[in-house]
């Protein structure tokens, strides 16, 4: 399993979600995508998208005053 980083800090919503959807489509099954973001709306949209698509969230935390990281796994 490999963890791939998607840095979306500075992007307004919905771009973190759009980029995450494209990035995870390219990953091999079993790999994880770590998305670093600072768009407040993405704190709702990214976990919701992961749940709807069946991608397990393996980590989700606030890492600064207005920045977060979420890691989702592409199922095998």
Explain what the structure shows:
- The chain is an alpha+beta fold.
- The protein has a single domain (3-73), classed as Translation Initiation Factor IF3, CATH 3.30.110.
- Helix content is 30%, strand content 34%.
- The protein has helices at residues 15-25, 42-53, and strands spanning 3-7, 32-37, 57-64, 67-73.
- It has a four-stranded mixed beta sheet, with helices on one face.
- It is globular and about 35 Å long.
- The model has no long low-confidence stretch (mean pLDDT 97).
Secondary structure layout:
Elements lengths: L2 E5 L7 H11 L6 E6 L4 H12 L3 E8 L2 E7 L3
Parallel strand pairs: 1-2
Antiparallel strand pairs: 2-4, 3-4
Question: Biggest sheet, open or closed, and with what strands and sense?
Answer: 4 strands, mixed
What percentage of residues falls in helices of 4 or more residues? 25-40%
Structural class: alpha+beta
What is the average per-residue confidence, as pLDDT, rounded to a whole number?
A: 97
The helix count comes to 2
Order of helices and strands: EHEHEE
What would CATH call the class? Alpha Beta
Radius of gyration over alpha carbons? Answer: 11 Å
Strand order of the largest sheet: 1-2-4-3
CATH fold topology: Translation Initiation Factor IF3
CATH architectural designation:
2-Layer Sandwich
Q: Ends: how far apart?
A: 10 Å
Shape by Cα distribution: globular
Strand content: 25-35%
Low-confidence stretches: none
CATH superfamily (homologous) name: TusA-like domain
Number of strands: 4
**How many domain units?**
1
